[in-house]
Every structure is written in C-alpha cells, then in structure tokens.
C-alpha cells in the first residue's frame, strides 16, 4: 500500500461493544472498548499532532526511541554452557534488529548490574559501527554471581533517563530465581520504573519463577514468555526487538469519565492478554481517571470496562462512561484526547433487550475466567490439591474449547488428559514436563478475539 | 451568552469561577467541561490548537425545546396539555436554559451539570431531551403531535404535515406518520427519511393532477426507496446500537392521508393506522387501514378472534414494512368519499394501543377536533401517555373536507 505522503503518526480509533439495555433497577454496565492504532493513517481516527511526544518524523530522521537489553549472567547460565552462548547470540541478534538512530545499551545482570556497552552511564546511537562494537563487547560476558533483577532495572532506568526520547523500552532475560535480593526490593524497583519505561521479560530454561517474570512484564506493560529451549532465543529476541522498534507513541493512557454517583467496578485489558488495570488508576480531574497502556505501534487491544451507575427509571438513558485515549502533554497542559467512545445505559422494560449479553462481553468474560482458572488450577496442583486442580483445569479446558482459544487448549492438553472438552472432564497427567507446566502458566493470560 | 470563555486556557471555571488545576478537563468543583471552549473533538482534529479565536456558543446542544411549532395560534408551543406523566414527559422538565446562570444549559435531571456535545450531562451522565422527544406542528387544516412516551429512551416515530395545491387550485392536505422498527438499526433515521420522502413525492405528483391513490402509491414507493438507501450508508454513529451489529437494515412503517375537498385517500404499510371520526358522533366511526401484522393476519385468516389475537405477545409483529430487508413492497391504498364532515386520525400503534377500535378512538377524539386539530392531537397523545405511554406515540389530525373547499365544492 502506497503511503508516500501520509504521516506515519499513528491514528487511534475507539469502538465500543455493549448491550446498553438494563432492566428496571439495573446498575451494572459492561462494555468492550476496542482501541486500534494504525500507522498509515487509513482510518477516520484523528491524527496525533507531531508536537506531541513519541511521534517519529516520517522523513527518515532518527527514531525517537531507546532500548536497554538486560542479560542474565548469573552462575547458573553456565549450566549448561550453551545457555550463556545462546543468550549472547540472542543479544547479538537483537542488536542487529535495533534501527539506525535508536539509542541502546547492554547490561549484564548478576547480583548487581554492570554496563557492558557502551559504558559510562551512556547510551550508544545505533549505526553499523556501534552495533559491531556492541557485539564485540558481548564476548566479555561470562557467567558468575547471583541474581538481583531489581538492580538491573534500576540501572536500565538510569540509562534510559539519560536519553531525551519518548519511547523507552527494556528487555530482561533471566534463567533463574531472583534470589539475591528481597522480593520487596524487586517490587520497589518495579514501582520506581513503572511509567518510566516499558519492559518485556523472558525466562530461559525452566529454573526461573513464572510469577517473577510475568510480574515484571505486567508492572512495566510489556510481554512475558518462556524460552524453554535456549536455541530459540535468537528468534524470540529478534521478534521482540522488531515489536519494540514498531512502537510509534508512548505513555498512552485510557481515560474513563464516569458520571456522578457511578463507580468503576473494573478495567481490564482483555486482548491480546488479560491484565487488570483497575488498581492503576490515576485521577485525572473530577470523575475521570487514567489507566496506563504503555506504548503503541500498529496494533489493536481490547479493554473490558465495568461501571456501576445509579439506577434510573425505565425510559431513561445516561452516559455510563466516556472512554478516550490520551497522551500527556510535555508542557503539562491538558491531555489531548486521541479518540473516544461512549458507553451508554438505557433502562427498558423489554426483557429480551435487557437480558441479552453482548457477544464480545460474554467472550472476554470467558477469557478472563480462563486465565484465572488456569492460575488457580496450577496453584492447586502445586499444593497437592488434586481435586481442586482437576476442577479448575477442567473448567479451563471447557472455556478454551468453547471460545476457540486453541493455543491455550493445546497447552492445557500437556498438563491434563482431556476426557471430554465440552463438559470439562479431565484427569491430571501423572508426569508433566516442567517446561510445559511453565509455558501454560506464563501464557495463561493470552486471549483470542471473538470468532468471526 | 456573553460569559463564554474566549480561550482554551481558562483561568477560572466558566460555570462556578473555581480556578482549575493544570491539566483538568473538568472542573473539580462543579464538573463543568473546561475544554468546552476548544472545538468539540467531533468536529476538528483534537490536537489542532484553537488558535485563540473566540468560539461561538455551541448551537448543537439538543435542548428540551418543546416544539418546532409553526402555528402560533392556539398555544401551539405550550407543550401537551393533559400529560400528567409529566416528570418523564418533555413538558415536565423545566426549560434547562432557565437554570444556566452562566449562560450554558443545565441538565434537566440533576440541574447541576452542563451538557456535552453528545447530549449527555457532564455531571450525572443523563441523556438530555432531544428535539424529537416531543414534536408538534400545526398548519391550516392539519396538525400533528409526537412524543417519546414514558418507557422508551428516544422517539423513533416521525411525521410530516403539509398542504399542496391540486391543478384546479383547491387544497390537498397531506399527513404522513411513520414508526421506526425498534429491532432494526437506526429506526429513527428510517422513519424520518420515509416521512420526508413521502411528503416530497406527494407534493410533486398532486399538483400535476395525479389521482390521489396513484400519488399515494408512488409516495410509499419513494419512502421505501429512501429507507432502503439508508442501509447502504456506512454505519454513521459508531457507538450506536452496537447490540445490533450484525445489521438489521433500517425499517419503519408508514401511514399517510391525503384530504382534498371531496376525497379522502389513505395509504399504508405496516401497523400504523388511519381512523375516520365523524363530527356527528351518532354516526359510526371507522378504521380505514388493515394492519400488516401478525394479529391482523390471524384475524383475517379466521384463526383467532380479534380479542385473542391482540392479547397475544406476537400481536405487534409486523408482516410488512419499509426497509431493505422487506419481503416485497406492497403499498395499500384506499380512497373514500365521506358524506359528512369529520376528522382523519393518522397514528402509530403508540396511540391505537390505547384506543384500538374505531369506537374507542372516536371517544378519545375531542368533539371539536375539526376546528382545533392541534389540540386534538395533543389530547390524543395525552390519552396514550395516561394509558401508560409504553411506546412512542404520534398522531396527525386531518379535518375533512379540506378547509378551503368547505364552502364550495363539497
């Protein structure tokens, strides 16, 4: 598609899927808000003014982004030695994917964080020469020491803060548990870094803690995944870096305005993964709050918004929520809305209308439950609660099958023997590969969209 | 409206004078929209700076304007008398403009918030009265009234009333009433398009000397085409009726009456009706239309009594309508030559549900209907609201014979 004269600034569009009809006395309004960002300017959404943060000039000037790669160099990376070699290769592949002009750095992580390249608290600007130098520097990486991921993140934050760029991104690779600092230290580091940069996290092998890796990605609005076979690291790192390079605009928030007397029951991202944002609300004036969504490239995400409104008489209509996408202004002025959608409530005595469940809402309610029962089932399984695990994972099999979430269904089938997917009848497998178990847990929040 | 802010950077809330925090879009104190001085996001790219120019008072706020009344006599603009369901009715809410101390209209529900460009209160979120919630119109020789009713959130009915001239100069009074099909998308657009298209068509054909029945037939076909064309437009409002996304084409019913000095012609598709109510109530009133509805078909086929059929929950399922997914277009038309004066009541089921038989309708129509058609239309709307107002209600009252011919030709 030719886009010769079009700006590459992404345009946002918002669509709302809901059944606005409530029965007499009804209070709960559910809606799926689909936010789509397109780079080519092909939709009717509004353009982002170029003076705003995070927008690259389309005329080939330097991308407005910085990225720091954090590689685990703890002692365990030498067992087997291929792990360290694969990590080095993967980092090199990622460096090759960094676009010209992007600021970057490599950090070696152990019980402390060490700058591998370029050093001196700096970021390098990517070009063929710096990329080659960075790859040379990777040869010095060797395994030895502990694991304290919080220190890596704090160093990455310092480095990223030194660049005056809009899109700041990190990549964490770890192979072990975060043993050499207290969980509170990692928590504190994540709190300190949240909103300052986004970060993807990868666990390599099977000796790491799923909740630590997913926790990093969740707090820093990135992705989490398992790379059970170190040989697959290069491909994964390349894809991850390509995605990071595709981000066009950072620090986008989902703003919800709700009327007087209404309360936001929850706000969840439900596609591509489930992420509860309810507790991350930042007040934005009277009756409005912002939920961070991180940076956006060419992509579409779905949010499930549930609002409780004061009941009104049959025949009344009210605006239950106004959902908009906003960017902070650098000068501290009012945030600029990029696109918006309306969530409505209409009270009716038509029982057919008020009891109908919107297809999207029903689908994502199921997907959120799927993620939850997998977590609960796997926790029960670990604690030896066979009955509970069987019930939860059976429900998960049923939900995954009914909603067409085939990837998750396949992962589940490696942990349980499916007797009947439709009724959710399963038996726990006696022997499960650790990688399969961790893959299921790590990817439990992945959702699929409504079947067309 | 002299106190409208001139610049987007406000030093004080336009409503309550509270100084805003930097970055606020709404006033912390009163909830007013502090960005209202900037162009509404729907009309201009959000980021384009307002350039410091004075922004005129937005004109598109839907107010609870009682009526776009044309006829000043007879208190046409005074809302519907005899509508005790007033709290919900459009005449019940105080004119919001009276409360807007700082020049901006206030919410009719909470009296506190100002109104956003989508027509909702910025404080309590309640939808404001829309122009179509209650409409009245009166011309010489015809009047109509339409109301949202008490149980529906918007008015999906539409009407048009007008007067044309026949080739010999005698008048032809035209009334069209349409009822949007709620289970279809954009029923309100469908009814408005149909009422307008039928009127335009009649105004083109009647002065040329077309037979009223033929003209009526053409008008209904024109109305059908207008509704069909709505289905081709891309969904205009993205947030509208997402429930029905796998699209029911816009659809509506139609009933129309053309009254000339000697002939009364009706045409219809669907279950909106026309009744004849003579001045002399000792002579029988009559229903002039046959519904395209499940109940009517059951009765016509002799399968159920009228009472049984209309008590059934399927009674109102219509079997004929205007819209792209109608089975076939089969306009019904009929002409009558009443031998005495009276009125034609042209209405949607929102009225006739509360006066189903011709006798009941005759009882509901005031005795002076022919001389005060608007008052009669208001009374009939009130009759439906008193009965519960479960649907949108629209009624046109057309005196027969057409006024100027009264002395001469009839």
Could you please describe the fold and organization of this structure?
The complex is a heterodimer of chains A (452) and B (410). Chain A starts with 10 loop residues before the first strand and ends in a 10-residue tail after the last helix. Chain A is globular and about 75 Å long. Chain A is an alpha+beta fold and 452 residues long. In chain A, strand 17 (317-327) and strand 18 form a beta hairpin. Chain A folds into 3 domains: 11-41 and 249-354, Immunoglobulin-like, CATH 2.60.40.3670; 65-245, Rossmann fold (3-Layer(aba) Sandwich), CATH 3.40.50; 359-442, Up-down Bundle (Four Helix Bundle (Hemerythrin (Met), subunit A)), CATH 1.20.120. In chain A, 31% of the residues lie in helices and 30% in strands. Chain A has 11 helices and 20 strands. In chain B, 19% of the residues lie in helices and 18% in strands. Chain B contains 7 helices and 13 strands. Chain B has helices spanning 187-205, 212-232, 294-300, 306-311, 349-352, 358-364, 373-386, and strands spanning 134-139, 142-147, 157-165, 171-179, 251-252, 254-259, 264-269, 273-278, 286-287, 322-323, 332-336, 342-347, 393-400. In chain B, the strands form 3 sheets. Chain B has a 6-stranded antiparallel sheet with strand order 1-2-13-12-8-9. A 5-stranded antiparallel sheet of chain B has the order 3-4-6-7-11, with helices on one face. In chain B, helix 1 runs antiparallel to helix 2. The chains are: A alpha+beta (452), B alpha+beta (410). The interface between A and B is large, with 56 and 45 residues.
């Amino acid at each position: 598609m030719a886009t010769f004269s079009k700006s590459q600034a992404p345009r946002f569009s918002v669509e709302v899927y809901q059944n606005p009809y409530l029965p007499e006395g009804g209070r709960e309004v559910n809606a799926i808000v689909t936010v789509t960002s397109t780079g080519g300017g092909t939709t009717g959404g509004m353009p982002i003014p170029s003076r705003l943060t995070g927008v690259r000039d389309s005329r080939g000037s330097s991308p407005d982004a910085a990225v720091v790669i954090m590689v685990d160099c703890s002692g365990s990376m030498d067992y087997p030695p291929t792990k360290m070699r694969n990590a080095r290769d993967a980092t090199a592949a990622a460096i090759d994917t960094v676009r010209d002009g992007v600021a970057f750095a490599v950090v070696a992580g152990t019980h402390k964080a060490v700058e591998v390249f370029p050093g001196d608290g700096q970021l390098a600007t990517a070009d063929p020469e710096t990329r080659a130098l960075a790859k040379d520097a990777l040869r010095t990486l060797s395994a030895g020491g502990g694991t304290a991921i919080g220190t890596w993140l704090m160093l990455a934050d310092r480095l990223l803060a030194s660049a005056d760029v809009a899109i700041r991104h990190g990549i964490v690779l770890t192979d072990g548990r975060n043993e050499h600092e207290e969980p509170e230290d990692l928590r504190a580091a994540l709190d300190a870094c949240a909103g300052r940069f986004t970060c993807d996290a990868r666990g390599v092998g099977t000796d790491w803690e799923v909740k630590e890796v997913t926790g990093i990605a969740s707090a820093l609005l990135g992705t989490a995944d398992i790379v059970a076979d170190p040989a697959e690291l290069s491909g994964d790192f390349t894809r991850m870096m390509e995605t990071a390079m595709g981000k066009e605009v950072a620090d986008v928030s989902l703003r919800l305005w709700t009327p007087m007397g209404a309360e936001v029951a929850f706000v969840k991202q439900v596609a591509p993964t489930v992420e509860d944002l309810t507790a991350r609300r930042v007040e934005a004036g009277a009756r409005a709050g912002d939920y961070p969504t991180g940076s956006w490239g060419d992509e579409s995400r779905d949010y499930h918004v549930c609002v409780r409104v004061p009941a009104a008489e049959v025949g009344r209509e009210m605006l239950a929520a106004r959902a908009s996408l906003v960017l902070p202004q650098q000068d501290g002025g009012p945030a600029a809305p990029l696109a918006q959608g309306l969530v409505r409530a209409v009270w009716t005595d038509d029982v057919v209308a008020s009891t109908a469940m919107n297809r999207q809402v029903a689908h994502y309610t199921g997907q959120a439950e799927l993620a939850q029962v997998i977590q609960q089932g796997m926790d029960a399984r670990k604690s030896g609660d066979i009955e509970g695990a069987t019930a939860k994972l059976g429900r998960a099999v049923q939900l995954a099958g009914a909603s067409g979430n085939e990837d998750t269904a396949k992962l589940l089938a490696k942990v349980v023997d499916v007797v009947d997917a439709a009724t959710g009848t399963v038996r726990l497998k006696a022997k499960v590969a650790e990688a399969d178990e961790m893959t299921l847990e790590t990817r439990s929040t992945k959702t699929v969209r409504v079947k067309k | 409206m002299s106190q409208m802010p001139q610049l987007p950077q406000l030093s004080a809330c336009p409503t309550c004078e509270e100084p805003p925090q930097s970055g606020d879009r709404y006033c912390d104190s009163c909830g007013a929209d502090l960005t209202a001085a900037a162009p509404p996001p729907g009309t201009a790219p959000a980021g384009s700076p307002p350039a410091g120019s004075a922004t005129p008072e937005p004109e598109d706020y839907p107010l609870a304007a009682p009526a776009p009344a044309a006829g000043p006599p007879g208190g046409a603009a005074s809302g519907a008398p005899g509508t005790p369901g007033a709290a919900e009715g459009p005449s019940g809410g105080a004119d919001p403009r009276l409360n807007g101390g700082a020049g901006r209209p206030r919410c009719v529900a909470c009296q506190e918030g100002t109104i956003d460009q989508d027509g909702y209160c910025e404080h309590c979120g309640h939808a404001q009265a829309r122009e179509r919630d209650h409409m009245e119109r009166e011309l010489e020789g015809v009047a109509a009234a339409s109301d949202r009713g008490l149980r529906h959130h918007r008015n999906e009915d539409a009407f048009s009333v007008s007067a044309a001239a026949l080739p010999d100069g005698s008048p032809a009074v035209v009334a069209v009433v349409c009822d949007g099909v709620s289970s279809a998308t954009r029923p309100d657009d469908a009814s408005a398009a149909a009422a307008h298209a039928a009127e335009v068509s009649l105004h083109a054909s009647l002065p040329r000397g077309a037979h009223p029945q033929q003209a009526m037939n053409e008008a209904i076909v024109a109305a059908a085409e207008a509704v069909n064309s709505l289905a081709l437009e891309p969904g205009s409002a993205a947030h509208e009726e997402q429930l029905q996304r796998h699209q029911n084409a816009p659809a509506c019913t139609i009933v129309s009456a053309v009254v000339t000095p000697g002939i009364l012609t009706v045409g219809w598709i669907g279950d909106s009706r026309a009744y004849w109510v003579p001045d002399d109530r000792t002579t029988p009133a009559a229903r002039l239309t046959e519904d395209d509805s499940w109940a009517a078909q059951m009765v016509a086929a002799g399968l159920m009594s009228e009472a049984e059929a209309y008590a059934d929950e399927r009674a109102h399922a219509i079997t004929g309508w205007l819209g792209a997914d109608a089975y076939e277009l089969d306009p019904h038309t009929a002409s009558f030559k009443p031998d005495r004066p009276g009125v034609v009541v042209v209405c949607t089921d929102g009225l006739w549900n509360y006066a189903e038989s011709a006798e009941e309708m005759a009882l509901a129509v005031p005795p002076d209907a022919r001389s005060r058609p608007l008052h009669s239309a208001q009374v009939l709307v009130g009759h439906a609201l008193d009965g519960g107002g479960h649907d949108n209600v629209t009624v046109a009252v057309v005196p027969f014979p057409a006024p100027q011919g009264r002395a001469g030709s009839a």
